[in-house]
Amino acid sequence: MRNRLLSAAQKLSNWLVPLAALAIVAAFLYIAPPGILSKADAIGYAVCHRLDARSFHANGYQLPLCARCSGMYLGAVLGFVFLSLTAHRSAGTPPKWVIAILILFGLAFAVDGGNSYLFLMKTTYGGRLDFIPNLYAPNQTLRLFTGSGVGLGMAVAIFVSLNQTFWKDWDNQPVLGKPRDFGLLVALTGLLNLLILPEWPLVLYPAALISAGGVLLLLTLVYGMLWTMLMRQENTYLTLGQAWLPILAGLTIALLQITLIDVFRFWLTRTWGGFPLG
Questions:
Q1: 174 forms bridges with which residues in the sheet?
Q2: Rounded to two decimals, what is the model's pTM?
Q3: Tell me, what's the pLDDT at 14?
């Protein structure tokens, strides 16, 4: 009986998921401000505080995500693309030394984020927290680099999980098993950060779209994996074409989440800008 219900749900989803996708895409396009960059802003609005002073700007345009979140999602996109090209369907756990470095990246993110948040609270609420010293003066460079370090960790975790969940022919070869591969990935991430820091519009406009797309990509993949497990279809796909339904379902759920958060935040703050302070 349970198998019959599951089979019926799988068949029904072939029709319902595309319809739901069309509905939620239409809803998002309706509530988001007009223009491609504004649509990117609406995606960033669902996951980031978008404070002006902590964001990069191109010709007066504030990027969809703050410096830290921009680094995080750009690093995640770069990492995922790099792994897709170099590791294909490898899904083995990275070597311990790689995991240790990624953990250090995460700790740096936590320390810098905590120090930056303390500085924000102290400057916003006067002398209430002056008895707690800052470790150092926060800056955009550290926000960007610590964010991109965590983004690499996110890319590795999602890449390995996705391959183990989706593909029938996934390989147990360790991801980033060669020091050369990990070194190249870190170097490319550092180079990307150095290109962003001068705030050249030629770099920042594509970065704006890619970082917002990174939010949608990661949410889509995570929800796509959850959909696959819910439908009991793990390790059944050989190509992206065969995996269209969980990917579309993941995209639909991701856009639904973004749209609902956008609506609630706009209702709460009455602005598409950063969270009001004070």
A1: 92
A2: 0.93
A3: 80
